[in-house]
From TrEMBL:
EC class: oxidoreductase
Binding site for NADP(+): R74, K185
GO MF entry, a single one: NADP binding
Keyword annotations of the record: Carbohydrate metabolism, Glucose metabolism, NADP, Oxidoreductase
Reactions the enzyme catalyzes: D-glucose 6-phosphate + NADP(+) = 6-phospho-D-glucono-1,5-lactone + NADPH + H(+)
UniProt-listed Pfam families: G6PD_C, G6PD_N
Protein name (Swiss-Prot/TrEMBL): Glucose-6-phosphate 1-dehydrogenase
Stored PANTHER family: GLUCOSE-6-PHOSPHATE 1-DEHYDROGENASE (PTHR23429:SF0), GLUCOSE-6-PHOSPHATE 1-DEHYDROGENASE G6PD (PTHR23429)
GO cellular component: cytosol
Parts forming coiled coils: none
Amino-acid positions noted as binding substrate in the UniProt annotation, renumbered to this chain: H215, K219, E253, D272, K375
Family (UniProt): Belongs to the glucose-6-phosphate dehydrogenase family.
């Protein structure tokens, strides 16, 4: 803990000065006057991620002194109890040192609205009065961001109530105060429901004022993918079907559902992460260079990729699904998915899903993209692996081709964010043995600046009104259009997904998915 955290005025002054210098260097700018209303403020996401991120933004000098946070929930709290709860979560999970002076300024803008439910009209009337008071007392400028960290089936209700009570206003000019809404995934459960939900939300909020959060897009390495591709001459000439054999995108967790039965059952790995996180990573990997980083240009190129994704005719041969069984992981006995508390023992929800997709463009024709995600796998990792075609082995005929020959670029999203380039090299000695070696780049070793937590970046972008990292409704619906045929086939089959052992890398059908093409999943 730094001395600034213990209230040393001199140390605090130096810390703020250093932070100001860092802000100037990295080009970030603070948000303008505003208030945020957080629905679902007592939930896990708010406690573990959102509230600490807001404090960290304040501590980094990214929030104005006027910033105010209004919690909306069922707890019978007054403002002081709410502030006490927020402080506890901040002290436990914030990434920056706790500074009492920063906290006191933030706490002065904390308010809480007790509601019987999301349809409680009296609560919305009190919310409206609180927002008016904050505008007068703290100078929030009448600018409001509504964060909906709530179940998706409540999105429409909250939006309608905000509209009917005059709390969500469409700005008519740049000088007007703004109202924005932040929506957490999942956004619908198929294309039809996503379209209906988009329509309901955009009846209340303008399209550019709807921010669909995908926290993976706030991660530094995801954004660095664009720099890696377009700021380096090395990769772009090779980024096509003449040189790339295939692409693997993996999001693996080594934990189970962790008490999320009420959310996860009926959702599964496909709807939970592949529809949003992994298809977004696919789009960023395969997209053409945008004209600029303007939101319209960036989103347009991602949409072109998703529109060009081809769903194969043989859905069974191009997909795999599984459920983790009981067994031993990390030396401990763990229950199977069907034995987890709160689950139907006949549930057909998958905890593992893998897909093979093709992109019908000149650049990517013939290059399969393999996507997989699962729980209780070998380790926690998210990565994009670009496997290049093997070099013709004309010189090293005595070497074991299993030891070398397929260059790879591995982009690590988490953990140990960075990238690895795999090359073939001569083994020291008198012979000409060849072996693959890694050239590794790690954010932690290469930069002294700490990467901001994804939610810090995304919340700040919402308050600044900068939408490039947020998918718009067209991207969401296109993603569902890709996955719907697979999910509908599984639901029509009404059979149990294939079991797999905890700590493994998924069911045998997932390995067969690649082996049929003469390929294999990379073991992270």
């Amino acid at each position: 803990m730094s001395s600034a955290a213990h209230g040393d005025p001199l140390a605090s002054a130096f810390a703020r000065q250093a932070q100001d210098q860092r802000t100037k260097r990295n080009g970030s700018r603070p948000a303008g006057d505003c208030a945020m209303v957080m629905f679902g403020v007592t939930g896990d996401l708010a406690r573990k991620k959102l509230l600490p991120a807001i404090y960290d933004l304040a501590n980094r000098g990214r929030l104005p002194e006027s910033f105010s946070l209004v919690g909306f929930g069922r707890r019978d709290w007054d403002d002081a109890e709410f502030a006490s709860q927020v402080k506890a979560h901040v002290q436990e999970r914030a990434r920056t040192d706790f500074d009492e002076e920063v906290w006191e300024k933030l706490a002065a803008g904390l308010r809480f609205i007790h509601a019987e439910g999301f349809d409680d009209d009296d609560a919305y009337r009190r919310l409206g009065q609180v927002l008016v008071d904050l505008q007068d007392e703290r100078g929030t400028g009448g600018n409001h961001a509504f964060y909906l960290s709530i179940p998706p089936n409540s999105f429409e209700t909250v939006c309608q109530k905000l509209s009917s009570h005059g709390l969500a206003r469409r700005a008519q000019s740049a000088a007007d105060s703004w109202s924005r809404v932040i929506i957490e995934k999942p956004f619908g459960h198929d294309e039809a429901s996503a379209h209906e939900l988009n329509h309901a939300v955009e009846r209340v909020f303008a399209s550019d004022d709807v921010f669909r959060i995908d926290h993976y897009l706030g991660k530094e390495t995801v954004q660095n993918l664009l720099a890696l591709r377009f700021a380096n001459r090395l990769f772009e000439p090779l980024w096509n079907n003449q040189h790339i054999d295939h692409v693997q995108i993996t999001m693996a967790e080594d934990i189970g559902i962790e008490g999320r039965a009420s959310y996860y059952d009926g959702v599964g790995a496909s709807r939970d992460v592949i529809q949003n996180h992994l298809l977004q990573l696919l789009a960023l990997t395969a997209m053409e260079e945008p004209i600029s980083f303007d939101a319209d240009h960036l989103r347009r190129e991602k949409e072109k990729v998703l529109e060009a994704v081809h769903v194969p005719e043989d859905l069974g041969a191009s997909s795999a699904r599984g459920q983790y069984a009981a067994g031993t992981q990390h030396g401990e006995e763990v229950p199977g998915f069907l034995q987890e508390e709160g689950f139907d023992p006949e549930s057909t929800t998958e905890t593992y899903a893998a897909f093979k997709l093709d992109i019908h463009t000149r650049r990517w024709a013939g290059v399969p993209f393999y996507l997989r995600s699962g729980k209780r796998l070998g380790k926690r990792v998210t990565e994009i692996v670009v496997l290049f075609k093997r070099a013709p082995n004309l010189l090293f005929t005595e070497a074991d081709e299993n030891q070398f020959g397929q260059n790879a670029l591995i982009i690590r999203i988490q953990p140990n964010e960075g990238a690895t380039l795999r090359l073939a090299s001569k083994v020291p000695g008198t012979g000409m043995d060849i072996r693959d070696v890694d050239m590794d780049f790690s954010y932690g070793r290469s930069f002294t600046e700490e990467s901001p937590e994804a939610y810090e970046r995304l919340i700040l972008d919402v308050l600044l009104g900068e939408p490039p990292l947020f998918p718009r409704h067209r991207e969401v619906e296109l993603s569902w259009r890709i996955l719907d045929p697979f999910i509908q086939r599984w639901e029509a089959m009404d059979t149990q997904p294939e079991p797999y052992s905890p700590g493994s890398w998924g069911p045998s059908s997932a390995h067969e998915l690649l082996s049929r093409d003469g390929r294999a999943w990379r073991v992270p």
